[in-house]
Write a structure and sequence with these properties.
249 residues; 12 helices; mainly alpha; Multidrug-efflux Transporter Regulator, Chain: A, Domain 2; globular; 3 strands; Globin-like
Length: 249
């Protein structure tokens, strides 16, 4: 098989720019490059690209992807892909459960039927980050957050989640405009974000910037913001750095 970069882009949905970036960082080199500078890919390169894309779907950081795919042992590659297959099946099952929950919600809304909070949030994984949170912030903080979330009730929980989406969406629009993190619009959104966080825990002058840095450094949190637009997490982090100067210790 011999596909040029345009054909690979059409086949996979990966942009030519991304493929060139993968080449520049040594993650995916073409099989050969023509006299016109156009990159060409063969079977081995396409298999490697598939592996890379699977890992990206699993939200593996790009810097970690290379260490996983850099193996010349077919048996090891097959074993790794089997693990990825299991992870994808697990994610498929979770999304299937979420789809069923949404379908029930739509049906009950259309028919005007009541829906319990247990039914409404079935399929959501509320506990997967709890051990990490307990280690990072302590049992008292986590238990307080859980209690505050429960206290909100179903309507309050929906409003809380909607506020977060509104803040992130507005930040994304400002990030696309290359807004100044210290500007009035960004700072107003950061103030809303601080109030949003403070329902569970009120971060001070040192803790709040630490939270902002985590939004960028941790791929899971970065994805939460950057799904609204590239640079959203970084704008929030930089805006937090400015806002936190006025917070108490």
């Amino acid at each position: 098989m011999d596909l040029d970069i345009s054909a690979v882009a059409r086949l996979t949905g990966v942009t030519s720019r991304t493929l060139r970036h993968y080449d520049a960082i040594g993650l995916l080199s073409p099989a050969w490059t023509g006299h016109d500078g156009r990159r060409h890919y063969g079977d081995a390169e396409l298999l490697r690209l598939q592996h890379i894309l699977v890992l990206r779907e699993l939200e593996v950081p790009l810097e970690t992807v290379a260490s996983i795919v850099d193996t010349d042992d077919p048996a090891l590659t097959a074993a790794l892909m089997r693990d990825h297959h299991i992870a994808l099946l697990t994610r498929r099952d979770r999304f299937a459960a979420l789809a069923e929950t949404v379908e029930r919600t739509v049906t009950r809304l259309e028919k005007g039927l009541p829906m319990s909070t247990d039914d409404m949030f079935e399929g959501f994984d509320h506990s997967r980050y709890e051990p990490e949170a307990r280690e990072r912030w302590g049992d008292l903080a986590v238990e307080g957050s859980n209690a505050a979330w429960k206290w909100l009730g179903a309507e309050g929980q929906r409003a809380h989640l909607a506020e977060h989406e509104a803040i992130a969406g507005a930040l994304a629009r400002l990030a696309a405009e290359d807004a100044d993190p210290s500007g009035e619009e960004v700072q107003a959104l950061v103030a809303r974000h601080h109030a949003w966080v403070s329902l569970f825990w009120t971060p001070g002058r040192d803790a709040y910037p630490g939270l902002g840095r985590m939004y960028v450094d941790d791929p899971r949190f970065r994805a939460t913001y950057d799904k609204h637009g590239d640079g959203t997490a970084e704008l929030l982090r930089d805006g937090i750095e400015v806002f936190a100067r006025g917070l108490p210790d």
